[in-house]
Amino acid sequence: MLSLKSLTKTYRTGDKALVSVDIDIPNGQVVALIGPSGAGKSTLIRCINRLVEPTSGQVLLDDVDVTALSSSGLRRERRRMGMIFQEYALVERLTVMENVLSGRLGYVGFWRSFLRKYPQSDIDEAFRLLDRVGLLAMADKRADELSGGQRQRVGICRALIQNPALLLVDEPTASLDPKTSRQIMRLICELCQERGLAAIINIHDVALAQMFVQRVIGLQSGAIRFDGPPDGLSPDVLTEIYGEEDWQATIRKDEDEDTEAAVA
Ligand SMILES: Nc1ncnc2c1ncn2[C@@H]1O[C@H](COP(=O)(O)OP(=O)(O)O)[C@@H](O)[C@H]1O
Ligand SMILES: [Mg+2]
């Protein structure tokens, strides 16, 4: 279980990015975090693994108080939190395999990681993951030879090889075309289900979020405006989160579901 208790972040500039946010996420649950640009989505994800230091409040992961950890304790705890980024954050000149294995850097010792000598069990697991996401044949390709969708699959493998308890995913599809976006969202959600992983997926595309998750949290100006099933995202709720718009056009309809099934 992940618990955020009165999580608050005020940047030095005075920007109140998070204002007393409370969220509980049970193990295995995938949550989409929606909201306009500047709502605080990235800040929230980064406060959980303390890439951004919260100003106040607590982050508890399975009763470990992440906010209270010293740097060595935090390093250990971060292994349990896999991260997936919008821009993939791969090392371009390294191979797909090396990029995936870099997810093990939190585990192997300094010299092993310096020499890039990974245990055979890590290499086997990397092959299994690449096979699972359909990239087995690309293992020796350099990251800069891949398409966006392929890069994000590598990013997913790199996060999963950490064997995390929680996935923190920041706009995974923002650089991808609509069809690839669906494939990547579906893949992330399937993998979470297979592995009983909890996840927070930041996503500004409401329709895409609604398609794949059972719980949506809407953030606006650093505060939660909605927390519930995707069906609860009425035009009024969306207006509160995003401002005035013609939301009927955005809200998922049953025909779209049929199209989705046909694509899959
Ligand atoms: N490093 C930073 N320094 C100062 N202000 C920041 C920083 N990062 C984000 N902010 C501000 O915090 C607010 C939330 O930003 P962010 O978490 O990036 O939102 P989102 O991911 O939803 O677009 C915005 O007002 C943004 O300008
Ligand atoms: Mg962001």
From TrEMBL:
Gene3D superfamilies reported in the protein's UniProt record: P-loop containing nucleotide triphosphate hydrolases
Record CDD domains: ABC_PhnC_transporter (cd03256)
InterPro entries to which the protein is assigned, alphabetical: AAA+_ATPase, ABC_transporter-like_ATP-bd, ABC_transporter-like_CS, ABC_transpr_PhnC, MetN_ABC_transporter-like, P-loop_NTPase
UniProt keyword Repeat present: no
Keywords of this entry: ATP-binding, Cell membrane, Membrane, Nucleotide-binding, Translocase, Transport
Entry GO terms, CC: membrane
Top-level taxonomic group: Bacteria
The keyword Mitochondrion is annotated on this UniProt entry: no
Listed PANTHER family: AMINO ACID IMPORT ATP-BINDING PROTEIN (PTHR43166), PHOSPHONATES IMPORT ATP-BINDING PROTEIN PHNC (PTHR43166:SF6)
Record protein name field: Phosphonate ABC transporter ATP-binding protein
Originating species: Hwanghaeella grinnelliae
